[in-house]
Amino acid sequence: MTELLEPHAIGTATTRRDGPAKVTGTAPYAFEAPADRPLYAHPVQATVGRGRCTRIATVAAESLDGVVAVLTPFTAERLAGTDDAELAVLQDTAVPFRGSAVALVLAETPETARHAAELVTVGYDTEPHDVELDAGRSDLYAPDSVNAGFPTDTGQGDADAELERAEVTIDETYTTAMQHNNPLEPHATTALWADGVLTVWDSTQGVHSVRSALAGVFGLPEDRIRVRCPHVGGGFGSKGTAHANVVLAALAARAVPGRPVKLALTRQQMFTLTGYRTPTIQRVRLGAGRDGRLRALRVDVVEQTSRIKEYAEQTGVPARMMYAAPNRATSHRLAALDVPVPSWMRAPGECPGMFGPEVAMDELAVALGVDPVELRVRNEPERDPENGRPFSSRNLVACLRAGAERFGWGERDRRPGVRRDGRWLTGTGVAASVYPAKRSPGSTALIRFEGGRYAVEIGAADLGTGARTILPQIAADALGVPASDVEARIGDTDYPKATVAGGSSGTASWGAAVVAAAGAFREKFGTDPGEGAEASAETPENPAEEQYSMYAFGAQFAEVRVDADTGELRVPRLYGMFAAGRIVNPVTARSQLLGGMTMGLSMALFEAGTMDPRTGHVVNHDLAEYHIATNADVADLRADWIDEHDPHLNPMGTKGVGEIGIVGTAAAVANAVYHATGVRVRKLPITLDALLPALP
């Protein structure tokens, strides 16, 4: 059991400390790093789906006034480490997918660089490419493990036999689309080599992970690389690992000694060079008795990866622990295609992986004639069904009950397709959500007393989640001082090492290190430290992590309106109720939950990368055609939480809130669409063609 901090600053609704700088335009981003006489880089991308470059003509580009250099696989330096094929840029002439970088232009202005890139002509020896995902492919394979090291396949009991014997069964296939992260700030890097040291300003979720990647690629000790991320304009996972852009910028800067190089990917380039969420095909089978209790559950997932680098989304993992079913089986199969490398996107695994099972649970509720909330309550496990451990805290039922009351669920008529408001068919839906309460080892915090105030130094990245605001709150409670006496210094590898801002683990990981450092500071200096006093500590181990299963839970409720004539779909209300431990800052936490729910709404209604099998690229690769939800797409959006006390997590008693909001939202919307129309949609996003033929 962890001794929790006495709340003082923790729990206080505090506005973001970096807010004024951001809204006044004074917060510096990676592309705006101070640089003397910078050059600007622009990648040239392959225009074929697969093959090899036979020639790259650069004379026309190099003749343009202001062009300094054009790097190609024939002229670029050889990198020391090429094991990661995604980062081994300009190292050979192979074209693994359309949009891969085949050259890089350096010029005095970004406009000149972009113009020159258009003048580079490339000849190809093309090969047939394959970009189509299908569950019936003969070349599907089982990866050694899926993301975060989970087993690829699991099984307990005899799911297949129990499915055959079950009184009520659901056996359906659900699909989610290729989705692209699209943070407001594009992936951008400023790089400078000086005196044998590489300094990089990068839009990243982890300065230390970028430094480690660059050290491997360039064969340098890490102390000769400095990475900084002063401010980050969002990432949603796409900036959680180094991509080709940061290597291209560093490679270009080494080619022009003493001059900094700035590289900002265009919105279109981000669709091929910065990762995306793989599309998924999920066959979900549920078997239950007439009492509504699950007897068997099976989830079999097919998804894609790149032929040059494996990434396996852990889509089937959340079904392993969500509900009590004595017989369970899950599997993952991959298709290696000539496509860009998939990567992390907000709530990898849980986000797509809860769509199929949560819609299937709604279908089971309809088949049984049971309220969907009640069905989930009946299948509440006493312990984690996957490993048998007790939950450190599990308040899903409380979220369902409190959310239903807040939403007005009790007034619901279960019959589908019978409520009309003029032309509008109306309905409501619910889905549950879950996300692991993680704490990553490996962070160190330093606390220093300067000028009568305390400074917390840690190399954490704030990608818009509020780390600059909540870390001083955590430190203040640990030190026993007002939060106004504490400042956070983050986003630089010159500060102590911090784990990546991902997996909803930042606050738990960095905060635990901050609390430990504060304890070391007080033990060493008491309450009257002298100028320059400092102490540091690492994130301590937590034995409870081996004794308990630790998760945050939630429930999303959606109301939809569907035009009976046109199929137009609107979501006037979207509510979420969550159990996520102690909330450090209600302002920043609610912002994260609302953002996640909006992104889940976007997943339900709009987001889909459209891959053209003839050319091998996503054709709607900009925000004009790749639609995302905005403020106008939901009129009444609310996120609330229950008070949850969990002493097993960390000294703050916190669980992450950055990702759970997206989990379950799309399923709630899809379930509401069925309730409104009687049309069951099992493919995301929900489009007019899925609704119109069957509307009453």
| CATH architectural label of the largest domain | 2-Layer Sandwich
CATH superfamily of the largest domain: Aldehyde oxidase/xanthine dehydrogenase, molybdopterin binding domain
Spatial strand order of the main sheet: 3-5-1-14-11-12-13
Instruction: Compute the separation of the termini in Å.
Output: 56 Å
- What is the class of the largest domain in the CATH system? Alpha Beta
| Molecular shape | globular
What does this protein look like?
This protein has 696 residues and is of the alpha+beta class. It folds into three domains: 19-28 and 440-541, Aldehyde Oxidoreductase, domain 4 (2-Layer Sandwich); 33-128 and 182-273, Aldehyde oxidase/xanthine dehydrogenase, molybdopterin binding domain (Aldehyde Oxidoreductase, domain 4, 2-Layer Sandwich); 145-179 and 277-437 and 547-694, Aldehyde oxidase/xanthine dehydrogenase, molybdopterin binding domain (Aldehyde Oxidoreductase, domain 4). The protein has a seven-stranded mixed beta sheet, with helices on both faces. Strands 9-17-16-15-10 form a five-stranded mixed beta sheet, with helices on both faces. It starts with 18 loop residues before the first helix and ends in a 5-residue tail after the last helix. The model has no long low-confidence stretch (mean pLDDT 97).
